[in-house]
Amino acid sequence: MPVVERVRASGSKAYLAQIDIVRKGERYRENRTFDKKRHAEQWIKTRSKDIRELVENGQGHELKTKGRKLSDAIQVYLDNHKREMGATKRQVLNTILNDFDIANRHCSDIGSREVVALAQELSNGGRSPSTVHIYLSALSSVFAVAKLAWGFDLDRSATIDAMTVCNRLGITGRSKARDRRPTRDELEAILEYFETSYLGSGFITNK
Questions:
Q1: Are 197 and 191 in contact (CB under 8 A)?
Q2: What one-character DSSP code corresponds to residue 181?
Q3: pLDDT at 165 over 90
Q4: What pLDDT is attached to residue 188?
Q5: Buried b (16+ CB within 10 A) or exposed e, 142-165
Q6: Is 193 left (phi over 0), alpha (psi -120 to 50) or beta?
Q7: β-pairing, 3-7 with 26-34?
Q8: Alpha-carbon span 173 to 193, nearest angstrom
Q9: What SS3 class is residue 28?
Q10: Cα(204)–Cα(96) distance, integer angstroms
Q11: Which residues contact 82 (CB under 8 A, 6 or more apart)?
Q12: Helices 70-80, 129-150: crossing angle, 10 deg rounding
């Protein structure tokens, strides 16, 4: 099973360990990032053995629900999104999926602090406040539906709270005024922001 070398936004190297096991007709996939390749290889060996034993003991369902990570939720969202998706949003979600460590965290371990930390990492990497806002808006769309639709243990309020914090700290913000029409991706980000902020907070209800 492969270990993929990646370069983080900070410039440091990371090693993505990937497990893909088919057992009793079910597929079990997990991944985790390490700072050293040998640690990644050892985790694959140990964790693969644990997964096989758990499946043999009838605990496969628990593995599939509790062991899922944000990367799984993002991929399922991308695979199941039937409405036309803006190119920027798709690219942003793929960037989070492939380039940032938050994607390798278990869904149940992600709260507003982790989302704020992602925003700070994006900002420290040279992205403007408006670009960071687009990243968080795209991520919030995953949080908004992943639990209800596919049972991922993601707390929707994590992105709502993180966006409030980041706006007040100046990590996110509006783009500079321009004499042009907004793009499809910009409009989608604006709509998702209001949907997440107001529908998620209970200020507006669907009738």
A1: no
A2: P
A3: yes
A4: 66
A5: bbbbbeeeeebebbbebbbbbbee
A6: alpha
A7: unpaired
A8: 12
A9: strand
A10: 29
A11: none
A12: 80
Whole-number Å distance between alpha carbons of 163 and 139: 11
What pLDDT digit, counting tens, does each position of 69-91 carry?
A: 899 899 889 988 877 788 889 99
DSSP 137-156: HHHHHHHHHHHHHH-----H
CA distance 167 to 194: 14
Most confident range (mean pLDDT) of 24-33, 47-56, 127-136 is 127-136
> pLDDT tens for residues 179-196?
556 666 666 666 665 555
pLDDT of residue 145: 93
Cite the DSSP H helix spans in 4-111. Answer: 37-56, 60-66, 70-80, 87-99
Q: What percent of the chain clears pLDDT 90, i.e. is strictly above it?
A: 35
Task: Retrieve residue 187's tokens.
Answer: 């409009």
Per-residue tokens: 104: 């390798």
What does the alpha-carbon distance between residue 165 and residue 12 come to, in Å, rounded to a whole number? Answer: 27
Q: What is the DSSP letter of 69?
A: B
Tell me, what's the pLDDT at 205? Answer: 41
Pair of tokens at residue 65 = 């629900």
Tell me whether residue 195 is exposed, middle or buried, using C-beta atoms within 10 angstroms of its C-beta: 0 to 12, 13 to 18, 19 or more. Answer: middle
Closest to 164 (Cα-Cα) out of 133, 190, 139, 121: 133
Alpha carbon distance, N-terminus to C-terminus of the chain: 49
pLDDT recorded at residue 72 = 87
Other Cβ atoms closer than 10 A to 20: 12
